[in-house]
Amino acid sequence: MEEKIFNLQIKEFNKINKITRENGNEIYAHAQFVLGCDYLYNKHDYAKAETFFLNITREDNPKSYALAQLNLGNIYNETKHDYDKAIAFYSNISREDYLETYVQAQLSLGSIYNNIKHDYDKAEAILLNISKEDNPEYFAIAQSILGYIYNNKKHDYDKAEAVLLNISKEDNPEYFAIAQYILGDIYHNIKHDYDKAEVVLLNISKEDNPEFYAKAQFKLGDIYFNIKHDYDKVEAFLLNITKEDNPKIYTQAQFNLGNIYFNIKHDFDKAEKSFLNITKKDNPEIYTKAQFNLGDIYFNIKHDYDKAEKSFLNITKEDSPEAYAYAQLRLGNIYIDITHNFDKAEKSFLNIAKEDNPKAYACAQFNLGCCYDRKHNYRKAKSCYHNVSKQDFPNAYIQAKFELGKIYISKIFKNFTKAQNCFFEAAKTATYSNCHPYYYICAQFILKLKQNNSSLISNKMKFAKLNETIFAKIKNICDLTNNIKYNLLVFNLFDNNEQERRVAHYTKPAVLFNLLKGENPSKFRLNIVDFMNDPSENQVLTSWLNIGNHPDSEIKSFLASFSFNHNCLNQFRLYGNEDNIIGSGVSIAFNKNFFGLDTERSINNEIISLHSIKSIKSFENKQVKLETEQIEIKSANTLYPLPLYRCLYFDPKTGYMALAKRNKQSFYLENKNEKTPETIDREWDDYINLLNESDKISKIRTKLEAIQKLIAELSNNPELKKISNLHELLSLAVLPISCLIKHAAFEDEDECRMIYITHIADDNIVEPQDYQSANNLYVEYMHVEEYIDNIYLGPQCKMQHKIWLQNHFKKKRREKEIKLIKSEMPLR
Known about the structure:
By secondary structure, the protein is α+β, with helices and mostly antiparallel strands. It contains 38 helices and 13 strands.
């Protein structure tokens, strides 16, 4: 009968509409169904299609009736969006009518109750009617919707996991991929079982479901970024995502890749390429962020100011008023710093509206004030400074108040009362920062002088010269200090020196074991300076400046030491020895990804401000440069990533200075089996030329001598001498470099340091858990294994240490091998 009707549909279609019940109910039902399908799928006349489908009764033919009711349900569900009628038609279909149609109807009903009615109990009850025996493909879809309901709506993650695990790839590859993705989400975000999350996400292939494959690769990248800190794998996963798979995820992946290349791997060409892959059409919001980051690359790294300007100009107010404000702020900075076009700078700053971005507006108004200051238009400058409110941006407000104070004590206005009010207002709210603590230190001087009823405040003539007497000198010291610190930064943004691509930390095998052990390895530690072996630690500079350090100060420095020489006999003799056996330690060679570039992280400004003296975030005197974060994926560890600085070796008695660097022997040890002595000598010479030590030393010496002179002038001022904590305030100006200047006697260590300066009440400081540990305090940095390139075993390091390290790394099956190198340095 079915074959006969099929032939009828093909060969005698024009006669079908003449078939009546007199031809037989079953034939009539089939004919009505064929006519309904013709009007539905070919002619798109839904009213006529409905009429034909409604002519079919269950008594005529249960199968045709079920198919007709399904199509009627689809018309009201997908075309007319009358979901109550759709539910009624779908509900008319019973399992006995036609099993395949019943399963489809139940799936559609479950979807309506889930997506439209939000009646998740009904959706659940209906979807549970579909078994694998009924239809494996639809069963997989039903189970995936149930998984969604349990996961997202009922938050019953165990049930969600159970139903999603019911779906096999053979049932339905597409929905298997979806189920595996949701499982990955549960393991990642809810159960925090990252290994299981990785396993299920890796089950998703591009052939199964390109869209969810892209999502899975993105989530795997997130796991390896935030949890496992393996940036090579993050890069690999994100590079697997193509635009064709999922344009939205591709755009986000390219943005994150750009940020990894910029912030982690410091490969600025790759970062540029990734950001350029993002078009406005793909995602206007991400495009805006990418253009902003491109602008920063061109400005700060490549010094291509035309391209930087173009990138910032690509950001429109329509795309993002907030980002537009930041971009205009950057453009103003370019016009001031590079092209010295103050008219253009003025125009950019004026483009920033308060309602778009209050913080950027405050900075822009301050910068406008500075522009007018330079043009000697003090009335306009004063007006702009007054536009900076405390609510918009407290730090810009503090600076504006200081600059207003300077204007009021100038010869133009000579309003000493207003000037005093401005200085006192700024001093009350100033906070500390490591980059330019100028405003904070000046504020503290103002407050102390007021408390002492100093003539520098009460005498109008002296008050008018405050900028010359104090402010300009403090600013000069802070600028010189910051410049020295920047010159000591090892992985400098503009430094292509691959010869310093890794540095070594010498320690005991027991420490290395704890850093690598099992499921819960220890994090790398920075130890408090107070308990260091060197009694002159952190005092060489301040003693030379005659300002001293205060042992009772609540501001503490923590540091970790590294050496440019990875296989050094003297280091093996001094550090990491176990059981009193000299040379039994290890040297861990870390790659540069273990460190950061943001020098602001070296001091925890917020904690110092909260617990101790009032603190201040840094801004340059004549221009606020409001920074925005490059990378969106954030680490929960507030210390990460810290920059690395090379030590400056200094003998105060003789004036001798030297920079920490690699020694020539380290070049021979690294390349002895691969390069000729002539090649090694040539590379050593290139390294020394690139380091340009003599020129750097000359510049640093000049800056230190200038600092010494300025501090002497301030220290010898009769009025300033009355300030009880004068030396402590002056030491804050040079605090960022105090730990970086070591006595020349330690030069052969060629040391570089990771520094963290904070208040003693910082929660990051780990409290001792037993009495034996009370002689040390430390802060935890991060896990280390993914950042180790080589491990050097000391000449007397025990054989079992090498064996357990080999076992550990072989089991891990790392893509990037960690080399174990036994030191052959001769011990006598």
